[in-house]
Structures are given as structure tokens and as C-alpha cells.
Amino acid sequence: MTSSADTHASFVIDLAKPVPAALRGAVLALGNFDGVHRGHAELAREAVDLSEQLGRRPAALTFEPHPRSVFRPEEPVFRLTSPTVKTELLGGLGLPLTFVLPFDRDIAAIGAEAFIDDLLLGRLGAAGLVCGYDFHFGQGRSGSPELLQERCEGEGIPVVVVPPFAWRGEPVSSTLIRTALEQGDVARAADFLGRPWFVRGFVAHGDKRGRDLGYPTANLHLPRDCRLRYGIYAVRMKIAGIWHDGVASFGSRPTFDDGAPRLETFVFDFSGDLYGKQVDVAFVSWLRGEAKFDSLPALIAQMDADSARVRDILGATPPFLP
Fold first, then answer.
1. Dihedral through CA 38, CA 43, CA 48, CA 53, nearest 10?
2. Who's near 208: CB < 8 A, 6+ residues apart?
């Protein structure tokens, strides 16, 4: 089991080994939980409520990697959260333990009834289950919430099925949020997530051009499945637990090399060596698309204008909590 704080830990299920007795008997919230958005928060709330009724601990059960990456590796899904971040966010919703089922074709071939009997009730000893109305599992995705209720409630195990969760009149989904990010609409994504979308990574060495231009940047290489729209964003970067305002460019740097996509963040009023350090970059607002400039003075003038605009935007944005 791994843990980086008292509020969130993960346990990777090994079907060849028993689950420790101390971890069995939880109320499980079931799902992929990519993004951990407002709909997932509703699922977590129901699991916490049921766990309190039953006097059991709440937990999540999720799958890694995303099933689509197993069946359609040539079309990788745009992941909204890494496994580590997902576990952390679920912990913040009151689910301190996340069971991770390594997903592959063998797992996918398990029959729906065996998935319930052998895994959920047998191996994990679930005291209760919570799932969304559209949760499907087992071979051919034949398992359904109705099957969970039929099979578990006969064993005295309560099952709560959460109906579609709407926000501002629209059903919340990871797909909706991915689409917003692909369009550069990070404000809309944040609205449906319930918080700004952020990425986490280690600061890497770049080409040092930003330093020469008066805008030294902290560079992150995002996963290749990231389909965030190329452009300039108002952001905040979390460094050693503290959020700092900044402006970021995500894209291929057409003025210079049209290279592999990279996130470059200029942190306002900050000095210090960030190379090799882990940081979070949270996206607040979209400014403009990526552009190619005919000269360095033209590029610097635009960067000056972008920075001034971002300072105004972030000055009117409430501070983030640590």
C-alpha cells in the first residue's frame, strides 16, 4: 500500500494474493473517476453517507490503466488525472483508500457475476456499494447497476445507484471536460470539475530561450495523450505547497522550432532553481492561441502584453488554498 498523506492511500489488487483483512469490509464507490469531477464528488458523498450508516470505512475501487487504452491503444484517451492525483483527489472527497485493479484483457474477460462474487464480495468483502447509473463491468460490459443490486442485496449488501448529476443544466462527465480542454476553455472545465484543472510534473531543462528573452520558464513535458489546446494561459503554479501566479504557453513553439509539445510557465516575481522539482500547474483562463512571430522584439512585446493581462486576471481571481 502507498500513501503520501493520512487522507489518501492506494492499494493495488493482486488477484494472486489475498487482500489484507484490515482493508476488507469497506463501502466501495465504483468507477474510473478520471478527473474526479462534481459527479464523482456526488458518488463519494453517497459512499461516505452509507459508510457512516453501516459503521464501515469508505473507499474507492478504480481501474488502471483506462480500459480504452487496453482495447484501443492507437487512440489513447486524454487522461484528466494521473493515478497519483486521482487517489489524492478522492481522499479529499472523504475516500481515504483507493483500491486499484490493474486492467488488462484478462480482467476484462471476467464474467460480470464472477466480478461481483469473487472480487467485490469475496476478495474485498464489500459492506456496501455505490456506483453511477451508467457503471458497466465484466466481460463485454455486461454487468450493470441492476445486476449489482440484484446479486448483492440478496446477500444483504446495500447498493446505491447514483442518477445522472447535472451542473448548470448539463450532465457532468469526463468527456464534457475533455472537450472543454481541447477547446482551450479551461474556465468551463474548472466549473464542471469543481476546481481548476491542473497538471503535475517535474521541471525539466529546456532550450533556455526564455531566459534570454527576459522570461525564464519552468518546463514540463505533459503525457502524450494530453490534448489541451495549444495557446497561452493564465495559470498558478504550486511550488513547495505555495501557489504562485504565472503565464504559461502550451504548444510547439512555432516561432522557433515547431517541436514536441511542451508546457512553459513563467512564474511572476519568483526567483529560485526549480529544475527537478515537482510542481502543479493549474489553469485559470485562456488568453489566445499559439502564434508565430516574425521577430524577437515582436514576440517580447506580445509576452509583455500577455503578462500584463494575466496579472489583471489573476488579481481578480481568489487565491487557491494550499
1. 140
2. none
Per DSSP, helices labelled H in 62-185 are 67-71, 83-92, 105-108, 112-114, 145-153, 174-182
CA–CA distance, 263 with 283 (Å, rounded to integer): 11
Cα 44 → chain centroid: 15
b/e map of 79-108 (b: 16 or more CB within 10 Å)? bbbebebbbbbbbebbbbbbbbbebeeebb
> Which residues lie across from 3 on neighbouring strands?
9
Contact by Cβ (8 Å): 227, 251: no
Q: What does each C-alpha distance from 112 to 75, 118, 136 come to in angstroms?
A: 26, 10, 9
- Measured CA to CA, the distance from residue 226 to residue 224 in angstroms comes to 5
Per-residue pLDDT tens listing for the chain (322 residues):
544 445 789 999 998 999 999 999 999 999 999 999 999 999 999 999 999 999 999 999 999 988 888 888 888 899 999 999 999 999 999 999 999 999 998 998 999 999 999 999 999 999 999 999 999 999 989 999 999 999 998 899 999 999 999 999 999 999 999 999 999 999 999 999 999 999 999 999 876 666 667 788 999 999 989 999 999 999 999 999 999 999 999 998 776 776 788 999 999 999 888 999 999 999 999 999 998 888 888 999 999 999 999 999 999 999 987 6
Coil/strand/helix, residue 226 = coil
Instruction: Give the global pTM.
Output: 0.91
Residue 119 and residue 24: Cα distance in Å, rounded? 11
What is the distance of C-alpha 301 from the center of its chain? 35
